[in-house]
Amino acid sequence: MYLLYVDESGTTHDQNQQYFVLAGFCVFERQGFWIANELDQIAARFDPADPANIELHGSPMFGGRGQWRSYPKEVRHLAIEDALKVFLQSHPSNRLFASVIKKAAVSPRDPVEVTFEQLASRFDKYLMRLHRNSDTQRGIIIFDKSTYETTIQALATDFRTIGYTWGIIRNFSEVPLFLDSKASRLIQLADLIAYAIFRNFEKGDSRFFSIIESRFDSEGGIIHGLHVLQ
User: Fold this and answer.
1) Beta strand pairing status for 19-28 and 2-9?
2) In the chain, N or C: fewer CB atoms in 10 Å?
3) Which residues in the chain belong to E strands, given as ranges?
4) How far, in Å, CA of 98 to CA of 9, rounded?
5) For 218, phi and psi rounded to 5 degrees?
6) CA-CA distance, 8 to 192, in Å (whole number)?
7) Using CA atoms, how far apart are residues 77 and 61, in angstroms rounded to an integer?
8) Contact 151/112 with Cβ under 8 angstroms?
9) Sheet of 226-229, strand order
């Protein structure tokens, strides 16, 4: 089974932000422990006695807010880079998926609906390609708990029964699950990935995006894992 950990960056209602991003990464079920352990070691730099007390989140780490206020910018930004490199160094079957939309381009549709449809369908098609290559796997999407939970659950049910724009989701074993990010390093990594993508499009800052750019799902030179609507 492949687990797709997802988080959003940007908000649907902030008029000062042009973009909304839904992004994450899929990992084979037995590989999550290694990634979480590597992220624990990065968190331990900031609290060796209790690494679990340190949450890795892109926006607070970048801006030095909350528990990150006392750390120098260079140290905080290096920790973001190192966390993203953990994924870069993970098994090549682990892929990135993201939907990036300019909110004005989809108005009056809900950006969450648009991005989730793209993300779910692209993950489903990745699992279909694995099946065609004699590696049949099922998938589950795991989100950080958010205000969008009700919307996403309803959409996921419709995709599996009524269908979506390009067909019916066939390879998911369950509707999306929602976790508290404090309890999951993998959700925290999804947050960092979404933030890196958001900064690239919203701010034109590719520092973090360039680290992970090569890991979007692709086949035959065609990138399937990154959807951009401007």
Assistant:
1) antiparallel
2) C
3) 2-9, 19-28, 96-102, 139-144, 177-179, 218-219, 222-223, 226-229
4) 11
5) -150, 160
6) 10
7) 7
8) yes
9) 177-179, 139-144, 2-9, 19-28, 96-102, 226-229
User: Cβ(35)–Cβ(189) under 8 Å?
Assistant: yes
The rounded distance, in Å, linking the Cα atoms of 125 and 2 is: 13
pLDDT of residue 147: 64
pTM above 0.85, yes or no: yes
Q: Provide the residue count of the chain.
A: 230
For the range 211-214, what are the long-range contacts, defined as Cβ-Cβ under 8 Å and sequence gap of 24 or more? Answer: 211/81, 211/84, 211/85, 211/88, 212/84, 212/87, 212/88, 212/96, 214/88
| DSSP state, residue 11 | -
- Residue 179 β-bridge partners: 144
Of 111, 119, 123, 206, the residue nearest 151 (C-alpha): 111
pLDDT at 188: 97
Residue 103 DSSP SS3: helix
3-class DSSP state of 93: coil
Give the pLDDT score at 153: 79
What is the per-residue burial (b if ≥16 Cβ within 10 Å, else e) of 111-148?
bbbbbbbbbbbbbbbbbeebeeeeeebebbbbbbeeeb
| pLDDT (tens digit per residue) in 179-204 | 999 999 999 999 999 999 999 999 99
Spatial distance between the Cα atoms of 67 and 216, rounded to a whole number of angstroms = 31
The span from the CA of 59 to the CA of 62, in Å, is: 5
73-88 and 32-43 are packed helices; what angle lies between their axes, rounded to 10 degrees? 170
